[in-house]
Amino acid sequence: MFKVNMVEPPVVYFEDLAEGHEFPTVTKGPMMVGHQVRWAGACDNYESEFHHDEHVAKAAGLPGILLSGPLMASLLLTTVTQWLGRDARLVRFFDQNRGATMPRDTALMNGRVKRKYLESGKAFVELDLSITNQRSEVTTPGSALAEMPRRGG
Amino acid sequence: MTEFSQAEMERQLAALIGPVGEPVSMAVELGAVRRMAVAVDDFDPIHYDEAAAHKRGFRGIVAPWPLLWSWFFNCTEYHLDIEFGKATVHGQDEYEFREPLIVGDVITVTTTIMAARLKQGRTGPLGQVEAERRFTNQHGQLCAVLKTTLFRR
User: What does B73-138 look like in DSSP terms, one character per residue?
Assistant: First the structure.
């Protein structure tokens, strides 16, 4: 049996979330080169050497290794699925790679409910999202839309 | 470095618009699902345990959505065939989620450059390229759409 501590997300209902609700911030890291290497393995893609080799990164004029934008966004996406619970259905997700995450940076996953609404008998929530670093700089603004279960539905 | 006129840069960008390559198919593998789930801190049992996935109403073990990047890197052409500029930057991503990716499914991805335009960036001309990748399963169901914006400068 693969050794992973599985954790089933809680059930969260549309009625549990109010507009303006802020989800508890989730801290990732310090992010390390190992996170990037694991991501490269998961994507089966090692082509962009500057993501895992400091020598290559600096030779290209970068300050050092930069962790992949899609990796950081994917950590945010996972956090959203945990905030919204196991019966939510993620419909859309958006992220922008605005600032770099470098080894030893901390990444804080932030989210709040921007809007909730009913449409064609379905319940939706829109989220404002961001990743900030230890200097409170926004590295990754984002957003998401999810269909939520109804209490008693 | 060769200097290109604005008209030539616009011509290179316009030439990108349209389908890119042929559709490519790749199976959803159990090991790949597990590796991606671990890489993005997703410990929901539906990514590891078939019984848990069935209990939640899925046909089988469910891939975390970031596994789409495995098709992106391994099944599609993502380098921009343009001569101007020194570097390509991954700007932002917009995901649309439909049918889940299930272990054993065969996912076919098609790539299209939807738009490419020349803008004026802070440090000079900036090419903005919007690519769309559509992921379809063996039943012809649309699983996801990934819209990626790249910048060339």
Answer: HHHS--S----S-S-EEEEEEEEEE-SPPBTT-EEEEEEEEEEEEEEEETTEEEEEEEEEEEEE-T
Cβ of A4 within 8 Å of Cβ of B48? The answer is yes
Angle at B119 between CA A129 and CA A140, to 5 degrees: 15
CATH number at residue A77: 3.10.129.10
Tell me, what's the ipTM?
0.95
* CATH code of the domain made up of B6-152: 3.10.129.10
Query: A92, A94, A83, A78: which is closest to A140 by C-alpha?
Result: A94
| CA A50 – CA A35 distance, rounded (Å) | 14
Q: In 3D, which of A35, A8, A24, A9 has the Cα closest to residue A108? A: A24
Has residue A92 been placed in a domain? yes
Contacts of A7 in chain B (CB under 8 A): 43-45
pLDDT digits (tens, 9 = 90+) for A57-99: 999 888 999 999 999 999 999 999 999 999 999 999 999 999 9
Interface size between A and B, measured as CB pairs under 8 A:
111
Structural domain range at position A56: 14-148
Provide the chain A residues 11-40 that lie in CB contact (below 8 A) with chain B: 28, 35, 38-39
Q: Is the pTM of this model over 0.90?
A: yes
CB B145 within 8 A of CB B131: no
